[in-house]
Amino acid sequence: MDMRLLKILIGILLLATIVVFGGFLYWQKQLDGPIALDEQTIYEVPRGAAFTRVIDDLEKRGVIDAAWPYRLLARVAPEATQGLRAGEFELDPGMSGRQLIAHLSSDQVVTYRLTIPEGWTFRQMRAQLDKAAKLAHRTAAMSDEEVMAALGHEDTFPEGQFFPDTYRYHKGVTDLEILRRAFDRMQQTLASVWDERDDDLPIDTPYQALILASLIERETGVPAERGEIAGVFVRRLQKGMRLQTDPTVIYGMGDSYVGNITRADLQRQTAYNTYVIEGLPPTPIAMPGLGSLEAAVHPAAGDTLYFVAKGDGSHQFSRTLQEHNAAVRRYILNRD
User: What's the confidence (pLDDT) of residue 152?
Assistant: First the structure.
């Protein structure tokens, strides 16, 4: 072969090698360099979206400068591009292209918080669910009975059956899933607490413990008082005394309650008014937390039978009706 021709071929080969190697380095730089974001952005990967569709969308939105490096990656290393997960992801400035792909394939989806406070009713919980952002609402048009049927518990009255807590979820999770998690959590917690109960309680079932815990929850917001409140209720049940707790009156009044209780309300016959019925009301009146559940099965020992609100969230406890009446005059009627 002519030496001149050989040199030309070698030169062409070297040039091609340089071009290919340079192209490879440029491709790697595109993948390893930062994405085109100036501020944190939430990006949603649609359910079932193909990798190329997501990449094209990222280019269209200006998250990446060009789609071709990622399309090439899908050809030469398909295993690196096949794990995209549906959901919302936080994309940060400075994130590289490779980090972007890894992030969209991770379980680090954006999550939201839904807080159900202790002492809330099922109605309040449903209203909170209806307002929750990014939650898929399935129950808004359902009755309480239909909600329980959808959860597989059609014969269960919903009040008190859901554990109050903060629940995390990501976009697309349904309100039924939150309800299911809260329901299962309450059943597990109640079963565990009931297994560790004190002896000689005047309640016979976990459901009665749930009812009692709901009364404790609604009577006090002071954690240290829960055991003593429980002790008063337990001793009154043991003695055959009516519980006479205002929250049951309020619950029995339903929508007619407008912020205060009258003497007539205390005498009104409802299934829940413990001023007129014997023993516990037929169902819980709210969602008790763990503290109230534990107090219901571990009441504080003592001899108090009465308590009255002091106006600061705490209560004055009394052993006798005479002491109680004096406390009522002091804290309710403002008389010495």
Answer: 97
Dihedral of CA 262/267/269/270: which sign? positive
- CB neighbours (10 Å) of residue 164? 23
Q: Which of 24-33, 99-108, 148-157, 290-299 has the lowest mean pLDDT?
A: 24-33
Using a 10 angstrom Cβ sphere, with 0-12 exposed, 13-18 middle and 19 or more buried, the burial of residue 323 is middle
Give this prediction's pTM: 0.85
Tokens for 257?
A: 């309650």
In whole angstroms, what is the distance from residue 153 CA to residue 123 CA? 17
Residue 18 phi/psi, 5-degree rounding, is -65, -45
What is the rounded CA–CA span in Å between residue 121 and residue 129?
A: 13
CA distance 210 to 189: 10
Backbone angles phi, psi at 306, to 5 degrees: -140, 155
Q: Identify which of 164, 135, 107 has the alpha carbon closest to the alpha carbon of residue 289.
A: 164
Question: Is the pLDDT confidence value at 80 over 70?
Answer: no
Split at pLDDT 50, 70, 90, the class of 259 is confident
Cβ pair 325, 335 in contact under 8 A: no
CA diameter of the chain: 124
